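Hi U.,

Before I forget, here's the chain from the pilot set. I'm dumping it here mostly so it's searchable later in email.
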Amino acid sequence: MSEFPEEKNKKVQNRSPIFYEPVKRVFDISFALVSIILLSPFLLLLVLFIRISGGGPVIYKQDRIGKKGVPFSIYKFRSMVYDAEHGVPLLSGNHEERITRTGRFLRKYRIDEIPNLFNVIKGEMSVVGPRPERQYFIEQIMKRNPSYGELQGVRPGVTSWGQVKYGYASNVDEMLERLHYDLYYMKHRSLWFDLKIIFCTVGTVLRGRGV
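Structure:
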């Protein structure tokens, strides 16, 4: 199968079994709870290191757009200096000065996204699904590829096919390139595909290829 939808701007259709969504939700909650419990000693150490490296709050909250276009606050471990954006939405590169020393380590192994699991428990996110974006960037993407709107038909994910195959995007052009992979996921999503993405994500994390 091709990695991209056959027609980029054609409405995405997915014929997942009727049990897919409820089973996925049960899996999401179970996975998030077990992960948080098992990682709790490690998370306490992280809180200490993040607090030492630059001051400011340990948990960073940012407005994102979720399922059906509903906004929510995504939780992440802070990887940048406090007040890095000064109120102006920016996409971060891999080697910019705003990222703290601890933050580079967190991003390399995608540890900064662990607090997303609390968003999963709240029902705002799924373990697997297209990564949520900010409204500021969504508006720019939609002008160039309206198919992005299809992604808002599902809960956004902690990890995604776009993250696995493409990685972080540092500008809108790269976000549009990554969109191809997320549209492919929307068309072919299934429990098997979700497990494949989780397995690939674990490999990415262990190899330190988060950025």
